[in-house]
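Bug #77: duplicate submission created two jobs. Keeping one. Sequence:
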Amino acid sequence: MNIPAWVWIATIAGLLLLLAIDLVIVDRKPHEVTVGEAARWVVFYVSCAVAFGIGVWMFSSGTYAGEFFAGYITEYSLSVDNLFIFLVIMSAFSVRPMDQHKVLLVGILLALILRGVFIAVGAAVIAQFSWVFYVFGGFLVYTAYKLSRSGLGGEDEEYQENRLTRLTRRFLPVTEGYHGSRVFTKVNGKRFATPLFIVMVAIGSADVIFAVDSIPAIFGLTKEPFLVFTANAFALMGLRQLYFLLGGLLRRLHYLSVGLSVILGFIGAKMVLEALHDNSLPFLNSGQSIPVWTINIAVSLSVIIGVLALTTLASVIKARRTEPARDPEPANNQN
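Kept job's structure:
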């Protein structure tokens, strides 16, 4: 897939324009985002991703479009894990509901920039060393095992600041309390960052930690850096609206961790099979290709959608069964 420089520039400009429109419309007047408003934005961003995928299909091929959709769905699904830590961070810093959208917007923009660096490095490594798929595949299988055992976001999870957040506090003076919706302010003529800025750094850096498994996962579905980047961008842009839409419902997705672990394990196995098929390690089959079955993108997309649909349905059924039944209204006794 040969992507001219102007297509990269136009795509990034279009993504930034979407973020700018979101920022102007939603944050023009800081307010608490309602469920209805969040739902409309989620539909908008998903529609943009679908339109982009159709564009890939029209101007490139159905195979690349399938790779984009598989990568986008996987990244969006894995990003739900981020929402748990976002909830913990917002709670730990006591961020006002009306400021949460701005925090997520800037934090996710920072995450997108950092993910872009990850993607560039990953693409360069894969281009030079095909055997890295063995490493990525094994790592994803291990991650799938850990996720199946530990699940998503423990009930008693507490936020601990990571190294980047601590370094920010160390080198940047931060006020003790919030100053409205300001990110920076002046105190006695000296410029300070407010805790709102620290929250943005915490959100952005926390997302990059989760990208350690999601970036290898999408490279298992497509080796095209353009598709990897755009799938990540669309998933991240719609993530903050999903945060407001799901809210407290996250804890009701009981089997989501099982579904995501199956998907990660599946992609890990797919990467190992591809690594065997393209084998260049001299101690394996004398450095020759090993005739194994490889999984095409149509099968991958079907498995990903099927697993997510089944686990979501199972979660909904379990949530309905475990919800406490409402007490029947007492009958009016008329004598």
